[in-house]
Design a protein that fits this description.
This protein is an alpha/beta fold and 316 residues long. It has nine helices and 13 strands. Strands 8-9-7-10-13-12-11 form a seven-stranded mixed beta sheet. A six-stranded parallel beta sheet has the order 2-1-3-4-6-5, with helices on both faces. The model has no long low-confidence stretch (mean pLDDT 94).
Length: 316
């Protein structure tokens, strides 16, 4: 039985991971009493006693937690932004070419950002295969359920949707664009993992539902070698043998593709709509699933040699 410690188990991602692992017979959770949950000495002991340690912490606290790990056998899976572009850390998106094997052999795994997961799933295969140039000037938007904002935002939405706050509540019933200054924290990993020369113009949007995510990249025909058929074939081949990320032909989807389609799930589908002059490539998943805790557990499974989808909710 493998021992697992969640450092930061009170946050949204940590709570979800803990809930998911509670019934696993192959996992023993190391749980600190409430009075020692933030004690550095107790945390150090727990981190070094674990086969896998999840860091569900702010960036600075995650860096500090890593410094406490002295056991060379402890696999650290960091869900913060702190190490996603750092040398010595494996980016935890196993569906990308060659990464599953590297994750299996790594002791330091950076869990991807939620918006970044959708963007990278769409763009990395196109750049890798030469369909889209690394110098392409890309633009993307991404709709996310409000749970991505953590406990405070969840409480704000719950109150507003109940009508507790008066006229301002109406703002929560619409989509809310944010990070408009083009400094979103996921941009560095988007550019690095996709081997882009520059980050995309990126517009994240909070949607008035709890969970679910829909990330879309807009492509002009002159940016795409081989047109839309090349994009279709690329996705179909790249994700052909994977049960977590899959290609969904446009004709298999409803006319209106909702950002909540895969809410409560851990898988993702990618698709492309449009024509050879203008096309939109879209990834649909759950910001709490493949965008956070589901991805973390998938990476843990790979690192421990367990079945990759153990404990995940996926198609098939």
């Amino acid at each position: 039985m493998k021992r697992v410690f969640i450092d930061g188990s009170a946050g949204t991602t940590g709570l979800r991971i803990r809930e998911r692992l509670a019934d696993r017979r192959d996992i023993e959770l190391i749980v600190l009493p409430e009075e020692t949950r933030k004690d550095s000495s107790a945390r150090r002991d727990a981190l070094n006693a674990a086969d896998v340690a999840f860091l569900c912490l702010p960036d600075a606290a995650a860096v500090e937690a890593v410094s406490l790990v002295e056991n060379p056998g402890t696999v650290v899976i960091d869900t913060s932004t702190a190490h996603r572009t750092s040398d010595g850390w494996e980016y935890g998106f196993p569906e990308l070419s060659g990464r599953r094997r590297r994750i299996a052999g790594s002791k330091r795994i950076a869990n991807p950002g939620c918006h970044a997961s959708g963007f990278i799933a769409l763009v990395e295969p196109l750049v890798r295969t030469g369909i889209v140039s690394p110098s392409a000037r890309l633009a993307a938007f991404s709709l996310t359920g409000y749970s991505g904002g953590g406990k405070k935002m969840i409480a704000e939405y719950a109150a507003a949707l109940r009508g507790d706050g008066g006229a301002e509540d109406l703002l929560y019933f619409g989509a809310r664009q944010y990070a408009m200054g083009q400094r979103h924290k996921h941009l560095p990993e988007m550019a690095k993992i996709c081997a882009l020369e520059r980050p995309p113009v990126f517009s994240p949007v909070i949607a008035p539902h709890v969970s679910g995510m829909e990330t879309t990249v807009m492509l002009h025909g002159d940016m795409v070698k081989g047109g839309m058929e090349a994009v279709r074939e690329c996705y179909a081949e790249y994700y052909r043998a994977n049960g977590v990320v899959r290609y969904a032909p446009a004709e298999s989807l409803p006319a209106v593709v909702s950002s909540a389609m895969l809410s409560g799930r851990d898988d993702m589908f990618v698709t492309v709509h449009g024509c050879d002059e203008r096309m939109v490539a879209t990834a649909v998943f759950d910001n709490l699933g493949k965008g956070a805790s589901g991805a973390a557990i998938q990476n843990m499974n790979i690192a421990l040699g367990a079945p990759e989808t153990e404990g995940l909710v996926c198609e098939g």
